[in-house]
Design goal:
This protein is α+β, with helices and mostly antiparallel strands. The chain is built from 4 helices and 5 strands, in the order αααβββββα. The strands form 2 sheets. A 3-stranded mixed beta sheet has the order 1-4-5, covered by helices on one side. Strand 2 and strand 3 form a beta hairpin. 3% of the residues are buried.
Amino acid sequence: MGNEFTYMTPSLPVHIADPLERVRLTSVATAIAKENHQLLGPTLLPAWLSYLPPALAPRLFRRQASRMESASVMNLTISNVPGPRQRGDIDGAIVSEIYSVGPVVSGSGMNITVWSYVDQLAISVLTDDLTLDDAHEATDAMIDAFTEIRIAAGLPSALTPIGGAMPPAAAVS
């Protein structure tokens, strides 16, 4: 349908205490992953998947997902979708916000989707109940990390709330 699927596997230096060094190492790891991706070509993964027999693939993915150690290969999927820089409209109505989510796929316990739109950044987190008890564990940790990076970079610690954005989701008991 015109969408392309590929992946990169950069290292995430979550074990580094210094926030600016963490950002620097993430940048280096991402640059290496992008270079590897370019060397292998964007069609390698789809080409491999085309060799899976259609009747066997669902059964194979279900079996792999049922194995607890399967998540150790790919325990986090992150999608980064650069959205439009100009506001759009649908039949004359201005689109003020865009939110996107990705699926929690077999063998991956968490999916984080990042989508930009004009001057906003929306981040959604989906997780299974084996990875986290509550997805807010991840979103709270991200807010703490963003704040820590801002302070280390000499910026004010307060993040800028967007008045028109949807209110944060709350866990239902």
